[in-house]
Each structure stands twice: as structure tokens, then as C-alpha cells.
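Operator note (shift B, R.M.): manual run for TRUB2 synthase requested after the automated queue skipped it. Running by hand, logging everything below so the morning shift can see what happened. Input copied straight from the record, untouched. If output looks odd, do not overwrite the archive copy; leave it for review.
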Amino acid sequence: DHITREKLERVLAVIQGTNHKALLMHSNIDMKTQEAYELAVRGLIRPMGKSPPIITAVRCLQFAPPEFQLEIHCLHETQKYLRKVVHEIGLELKSSAVCTQVRRTRDGVFTLDDALLRSQWNLQNIRNAIWSCQVKVQAEIERTL
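Run finished. Output pasted below as returned.
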């Protein structure tokens, strides 16, 4: 009963703020420049080289105690890292939290719409998927350059 959506939202805001600072630190960009401002506005600030996992956005999609569902946008994450984040959220709320499911809905420019089911894995379908994603990949390359 001591866990409310508001308390959860506060913990998520702290996590997002802390990770935003880490993102800026690992990006090697002078934040006092016009270039940094323009990159930030376009959402293009990214870590230079190897960095630890960084959460760029986190929000609560569903809150129905004792369960909640989060949407987490992050870079360089692993399932183990995401499970650890959920555990730490529980600790911050003076409770416990266990991750029961991780579902990747996007990886870079690729979404679930681009995915092939295992039953669809054959040369023709894979070739068609690569062909249809070329436009998406080219647009992303042009956007980031």
C-alpha cells in the first residue's frame, strides 16, 4: 500500500536524470556550444565509443499494484542490466521488484514490423526483409550525418 504511482514516477525521474548526465559525460561534446544545442534538440546526442548502459527515457505504462509495466529506452543495454534496474527501483521504493519479462520492441531503426518469425526464415524472406529495410537504414544514415 505504501507504493503509489507518484512515488514510482519520482524514482523513474531520478533514474532518467542520472542517466542523462551520464549520456552527456560520455558524449564528449562541449555542452556550451551551438552544435551541442542542435544535437540535443534533434535527439542525436550519443556516447562516443564504448559506454556503460545508459537509459535515455523511462516511463510507467501501466500501474496496477503489485504489478507495473515500464517502457525503457536505452543504449548498450542487456537483459541483465534491465533486470537490475527493476530491482533497484524496488529498493528505492523500500520494497522489492522483480522483472518478469523483457520485450525488445525496437533496435536502432528496426521495429517489430521489420522482424521475421522463425517460421519465416528462408532465403527469399530474408532477402526481401533486407531489401525493404535499405530505405530505412539509408534515411537513418543521412539523418545522423
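Quick read of the result: DSSP finds four helices and four strands in the chain. The mean pLDDT is 85.
Leaving this for review. - R.M.
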